[in-house]
Each structure stands twice: as structure tokens, then as C-alpha cells.
Amino acid sequence: MDGFHFSTDVRVRFFETDAQGIVHNANYLVWFEIARVAYLEEFAGGYSRLRQAGIEALVLESHVHYREPARFDDRLRIHARCADVRGARFRYEYAVERDGLVIADGWTAHATVDGDTLRPTRIPDWLVEAISAAEGGRRGPREAPSASSSSARRG
């Protein structure tokens, strides 16, 4: 998908559907998180590396635009990219694809904070560099693919 250098696959589980037989809207945010964590694992050494540095990345806002419903057993590809990295803030953008059709898209806005005080702190240089490399289409510091319950893809 144009503009995205990373994706991870998920399969819709029965419990993610509602009484109408379609995926409940809140699950898209869970899939965004799955993609975000897999992205960090792929390009920046994982979210645990950030936490080991005493930094947390909090979600400030989230938005989902639902285009088509997903249903039980659908195979979905969640594309993720990181943008607008500056100071203590950054933003992830997502596209949820089924059989080549984008069925939802959205974004989450984040801030890095000190893990003890929760006061804003600049995004570490190593993370800025890893994101820059990832968004340029180059591999970050880790060579191993991510995601145990899903599969991750670059490109």
C-alpha cells in the first residue's frame, strides 16, 4: 500500500464480533495497537526498549473511520506508519485492508513521558532515528520479524 512501509496481519476472532455479526468498533483500536507494537518491535527494538529507558508513550487521541464492516474469520492486513515526530509527540496512521480494499483507516496521537513522573519528555534520538529509517523504507536496528499472534510485513 502506498506510503506504508509496514503491515501486520490479523484474523478476526469470533469474540470480536457483535450481535449484528460484524466486528465491534472498539476492536479496530486494539488492532491499531497490535500494529503499533509490532512496528516498534520491527524497527526500534520494541516497546520494552522504550520502557527500559524510563519512558512511556501515552495515547492522547484516537480516530477511526469505518468504511466497510469486517466479519468473523476475515483476514486483515493492518498497515502502520509513524509521522509528525517532534518534541515529545508523534502520530501513527493506519489502514485496515481486506483483500486489497481499505475497510477502515485512522490515527493515534502519542506523547512520550517520564515513566515515574508522567511529565512530557523528548522522544529519544535513537527512536527518532529508527522511525526515520523505517519511514524511509530502510530496516531499523532489529532484523527479526515481530508479532507472535500475527505476522508482520515490511513494504
Overview of this structure, please?
The chain has 155 residues and is an alpha+beta fold. It has one domain: Thiol Ester Dehydrase, Chain A. Helices cover 23% and strands 37% of the residues. The protein has three helices and six strands. It has helices at residues 27-44, 47-52, 125-135; strands at residues 6-11, 55-66, 75-86, 89-98, 101-114, 151-154. The chain has a six-stranded antiparallel β-sheet with strand order 2-5-4-3-1-6. Strand 3 (75-86) and strand 4 (89-98) form a beta hairpin. The protein starts with 5 loop residues before the first strand and ends with a strand.
List the helices and strands and how they pair.
Blueprint: E1 6-11, H1 27-44, H2 47-52, E2 55-66, E3 75-86, E4 89-98, E5 101-114, H3 125-135, E6 151-154
Antiparallel strand pairs: 1-3, 1-6, 2-5, 3-4, 4-5
